[in-house]
Amino acid sequence: MHKTTFKISKMDCPSEEQLIRMKLDDLTNISSLDFDITGRKLTVFHSGGYDQIFQRLDDLKFDTSLSDSIPVESFVQSSTTGKERKLLWQVLVINFLFFMLEISTGFIANSMGLVADSLDMLADSIVYGLALFAVGGTMALKKNIAKAAGYFQLILAVLGLAEVIRRFIGIEPVPAFQTMIVISFLALTGNAVSLFLLQKSKSKEAHMQASMIFTSNDVIVNLGVIIAGGFVFLTNSKYPDLVIGMIVFFIVGKGAFKILKLSV
Fold first, then answer.
1. Could you tell me which of 164, 165, 216, 163 has the C-alpha nearest to residue 189?
2. pLDDT tens digits along 205-250
3. b/e for 48-74, b at 16 or more Cβ within 10 A?
């Protein structure tokens, strides 16, 4: 048995943990995975070499490097499958509810920033859903599900970017900055709760550190929409909202390619 630790520089969100879990799911030589999102580290207990594990991680383009690999006598594997599935369901529901809230209020407030942020929440829901529904399925089924989900997310991102471009060119009313700020703050709270639940499951101490929140891409996106709302108020212009919308749609598109990597 070996204990190998990888540094994964671009792993700063719980949904990326699920992508990594799915990517390594069919490797029979892996006994346990231990994630440290705050430290951007993954510790793998496995038999044999780590080359195949490293190759799978490298395929995700999360900037993976080897920290160390040492032989160990044994390890104690805790049975937490039921608890993990419950937590995944909780964060899936939270993300999906905020997707519904943001996309509806985004159109009402004429805010592409909120609409884009809603798709970012939907993207996380897709990842958590994949992690839940792909469990126990064949590798072919998992790849097909990941491919369908990835293309669906990519189509939404492209349509969103096209709408942002249309609004840049056309004459559009100024978004309701109050709605942008309030709803994004609620979404930020939802992301913080999701992150807390997931990190709480890692340790019996169950304390959430501030660094865990502010290294999350999702929270940064929420803050970006709040800031854009402030600039809409100060400038009485649609452009801050469109700029943050374009940035977030680009992030959603990148997330789609990450999911598609699971299907190859």
1. 216
2. 333 344 444 556 788 889 999 999 999 999 999 999 999 999 999 9
3. eebeebbebbeebebebeeeebeeeee
For 37, 46, 57, the CA distances from 71, given in Å and listed in that order, are 24, 10, 21
| Integer Cα distance of 246 and 253 in angstroms | 11
- pLDDT surpassing 60 at residue 77: no
CA distance 46 to 53: 9
Query: How many CB atoms within 10 Å of residue 38?
Result: 16
Domains and CATH numbers, the chain: 2-71 (3.30.70.100), 81-263 (no CATH)
Q: What is the pTM of this model?
A: 0.76
Number of CB atoms found within 10 A of residue 44's CB: 22
Distance of CA 183 to the CA centre of its chain: 19
Contacts of 93 (CB under 8 A, 6+ apart): none
| DSSP H or E run through 210 | helix 210-214
- Give 10-22 pLDDT, tens digit per residue: 887 777 888 898 8
